[in-house]
Amino acid sequence: MKLFGMALALVSCGASAAKADWEYTKWGMTPGQVVSAAKNLTRKSSDLRPDSDGNVTKLVAPYRSGKFSFEAQFGFDAADRLSSVTLVLNDKLAGMDMTMGADMSMNMDHGGCHDLLASVKNTYGPPQGGRSAHMQYTIETWQDRKNKNNVTYTVLDGAGCYVQYSAIKLAGAH
After folding, report:
1. I need a labelling partner for 46 at 20 to 30 A (CA). Which of 21, 59, 75, 171 fits?
2. Coil vs helix vs strand at 167
Protein backbone atom coordinates (compact mmCIF):
# COMPACT_ATOMS: atom_id res chain seq x y z
CA MET A 1 0.00 0.00 0.00
CA LYS A 2 2.85 2.41 0.69
CA LEU A 3 4.09 1.19 -2.66
CA PHE A 4 1.39 3.36 -4.21
CA GLY A 5 2.16 6.41 -2.12
CA MET A 6 -1.11 6.19 -0.21
CA ALA A 7 -1.40 4.90 3.31
CA LEU A 8 -4.82 3.33 3.00
CA ALA A 9 -5.25 0.70 5.65
CA LEU A 10 -6.96 -2.54 4.81
CA VAL A 11 -7.66 -5.05 7.48
CA SER A 12 -8.40 -8.75 7.38
CA CYS A 13 -7.39 -11.42 9.77
CA GLY A 14 -8.56 -13.53 12.66
CA ALA A 15 -8.75 -12.71 16.31
CA SER A 16 -8.59 -16.21 17.76
CA ALA A 17 -5.61 -18.49 17.70
CA ALA A 18 -7.64 -21.17 15.94
CA LYS A 19 -7.39 -19.59 12.51
CA ALA A 20 -6.14 -16.07 13.10
CA ASP A 21 -3.46 -16.11 10.47
CA TRP A 22 -2.64 -15.89 6.77
CA GLU A 23 -1.45 -18.90 4.77
CA TYR A 24 1.90 -20.04 6.16
CA THR A 25 2.16 -17.27 8.77
CA LYS A 26 0.43 -16.67 12.08
CA TRP A 27 -0.49 -13.28 13.46
CA GLY A 28 1.99 -12.22 16.12
CA MET A 29 5.03 -13.88 14.50
CA THR A 30 8.36 -12.05 14.64
CA PRO A 31 10.14 -11.10 11.39
CA GLY A 32 12.51 -14.06 11.88
CA GLN A 33 9.62 -16.47 12.25
CA VAL A 34 8.02 -15.11 9.06
CA VAL A 35 11.31 -15.57 7.16
CA SER A 36 11.43 -19.18 8.34
CA ALA A 37 7.75 -19.84 7.57
CA ALA A 38 8.26 -18.39 4.07
CA LYS A 39 11.13 -20.83 3.51
CA ASN A 40 13.61 -17.94 3.24
CA LEU A 41 11.86 -16.47 0.16
CA THR A 42 11.44 -13.08 1.86
CA ARG A 43 13.63 -10.05 1.38
CA LYS A 44 13.79 -6.83 3.36
CA SER A 45 11.36 -4.12 2.28
CA SER A 46 12.73 -0.90 0.85
CA ASP A 47 9.88 1.17 2.35
CA LEU A 48 9.92 1.26 6.15
CA ARG A 49 7.40 4.08 6.63
CA PRO A 50 4.47 3.17 8.89
CA ASP A 51 1.04 2.84 7.29
CA SER A 52 -2.08 4.48 8.70
CA ASP A 53 -2.40 1.65 11.25
CA GLY A 54 1.17 2.18 12.39
CA ASN A 55 2.35 -1.09 10.81
CA VAL A 56 5.70 -1.20 9.00
CA THR A 57 6.27 -3.46 6.01
CA LYS A 58 9.60 -5.03 6.94
CA LEU A 59 9.52 -8.07 4.64
CA VAL A 60 8.22 -8.89 1.17
CA ALA A 61 8.00 -12.19 -0.71
CA PRO A 62 6.57 -13.53 -3.96
CA TYR A 63 3.18 -15.22 -3.62
CA ARG A 64 0.96 -16.98 -6.12
CA SER A 65 -2.71 -17.91 -5.78
CA GLY A 66 -4.43 -19.45 -8.79
CA LYS A 67 -3.73 -17.28 -11.82
CA PHE A 68 -2.67 -14.31 -9.69
CA SER A 69 0.92 -13.35 -8.93
CA PHE A 70 1.52 -11.02 -5.97
CA GLU A 71 4.15 -9.39 -3.86
CA ALA A 72 3.22 -10.29 -0.27
CA GLN A 73 4.08 -7.42 2.07
CA PHE A 74 4.34 -8.37 5.74
CA GLY A 75 3.35 -5.57 8.13
CA PHE A 76 4.63 -5.54 11.70
CA ASP A 77 3.25 -3.53 14.62
CA ALA A 78 5.22 -1.49 17.18
CA ALA A 79 5.94 -4.69 19.16
CA ASP A 80 7.53 -6.15 15.99
CA ARG A 81 4.76 -8.74 15.58
CA LEU A 82 3.07 -9.67 12.30
CA SER A 83 -0.21 -7.79 12.09
CA SER A 84 -1.05 -7.58 8.37
CA VAL A 85 -0.30 -9.14 5.02
CA THR A 86 -0.91 -7.08 1.90
CA LEU A 87 -1.01 -8.89 -1.45
CA VAL A 88 -0.07 -6.43 -4.18
CA LEU A 89 -1.10 -7.72 -7.60
CA ASN A 90 1.80 -8.01 -10.05
CA ASP A 91 0.13 -6.71 -13.20
CA LYS A 92 1.62 -3.96 -15.38
CA LEU A 93 -1.87 -2.94 -16.49
CA ALA A 94 -3.45 -3.15 -13.02
CA GLY A 95 -5.46 -0.09 -12.14
CA MET A 96 -5.06 1.50 -15.57
CA ASP A 97 -8.47 0.58 -16.94
CA MET A 98 -10.91 2.29 -14.58
CA THR A 99 -14.08 3.78 -16.01
CA MET A 100 -17.13 5.41 -14.52
CA GLY A 101 -20.36 3.48 -14.76
CA ALA A 102 -23.72 5.07 -15.58
CA ASP A 103 -24.50 4.96 -11.86
CA MET A 104 -21.31 7.01 -11.22
CA SER A 105 -19.57 4.06 -9.58
CA MET A 106 -16.05 3.10 -10.56
CA ASN A 107 -15.78 -0.06 -12.65
CA MET A 108 -12.85 -2.14 -13.71
CA ASP A 109 -13.81 -3.35 -17.18
CA HIS A 110 -10.81 -5.51 -18.00
CA GLY A 111 -7.58 -6.75 -16.56
CA GLY A 112 -6.09 -8.23 -13.45
CA CYS A 113 -7.69 -5.92 -10.90
CA HIS A 114 -11.16 -6.65 -12.24
CA ASP A 115 -10.43 -10.39 -12.14
CA LEU A 116 -8.97 -10.15 -8.64
CA LEU A 117 -12.05 -8.32 -7.33
CA ALA A 118 -14.30 -10.93 -8.96
CA SER A 119 -12.27 -13.68 -7.27
CA VAL A 120 -12.48 -11.99 -3.85
CA LYS A 121 -16.25 -11.50 -4.26
CA ASN A 122 -16.61 -15.14 -5.30
CA THR A 123 -14.80 -16.20 -2.11
CA TYR A 124 -16.41 -13.81 0.40
CA GLY A 125 -19.69 -12.76 -1.24
CA PRO A 126 -20.93 -9.20 -1.74
CA PRO A 127 -18.80 -6.55 0.03
CA GLN A 128 -20.01 -5.66 3.51
CA GLY A 129 -18.59 -2.16 3.36
CA GLY A 130 -16.38 0.18 1.44
CA ARG A 131 -15.83 3.65 0.05
CA SER A 132 -14.48 5.42 -2.99
CA ALA A 133 -13.29 8.78 -4.23
CA HIS A 134 -14.10 9.83 -7.77
CA MET A 135 -11.50 8.20 -10.05
CA GLN A 136 -8.92 7.96 -7.24
CA TYR A 137 -9.61 4.76 -5.33
CA THR A 138 -12.20 2.15 -4.43
CA ILE A 139 -12.14 0.05 -1.27
CA GLU A 140 -14.34 -3.00 -0.63
CA THR A 141 -14.37 -4.75 2.77
CA TRP A 142 -15.49 -8.07 4.20
CA GLN A 143 -15.40 -9.81 7.55
CA ASP A 144 -14.68 -13.50 7.18
CA ARG A 145 -16.18 -14.58 10.49
CA LYS A 146 -15.65 -18.27 9.75
CA ASN A 147 -11.89 -17.76 9.58
CA LYS A 148 -11.96 -14.68 11.85
CA ASN A 149 -10.44 -12.43 9.21
CA ASN A 150 -11.05 -8.95 7.88
CA VAL A 151 -10.43 -8.76 4.14
CA THR A 152 -10.01 -5.52 2.22
CA TYR A 153 -9.63 -5.03 -1.52
CA THR A 154 -8.31 -1.68 -2.78
CA VAL A 155 -7.80 -0.38 -6.30
CA LEU A 156 -5.91 2.87 -6.82
CA ASP A 157 -6.46 4.62 -10.14
CA GLY A 158 -3.36 4.39 -12.29
CA ALA A 159 -1.41 2.49 -9.64
CA GLY A 160 -2.84 -1.00 -9.14
CA CYS A 161 -4.73 -3.08 -6.65
CA TYR A 162 -4.19 -5.18 -3.58
CA VAL A 163 -5.90 -7.28 -0.92
CA GLN A 164 -4.94 -6.92 2.73
CA TYR A 165 -5.48 -9.35 5.59
CA SER A 166 -5.17 -8.52 9.29
CA ALA A 167 -6.62 -9.61 12.59
CA ILE A 168 -10.15 -8.69 13.54
CA LYS A 169 -9.84 -6.65 16.70
CA LEU A 170 -12.07 -7.84 19.50
CA ALA A 171 -14.19 -5.18 21.20
CA GLY A 172 -12.09 -3.56 23.88
CA ALA A 173 -8.86 -5.10 22.54
CA HIS A 174 -6.02 -2.85 21.46
Report:
1. 21
2. strand
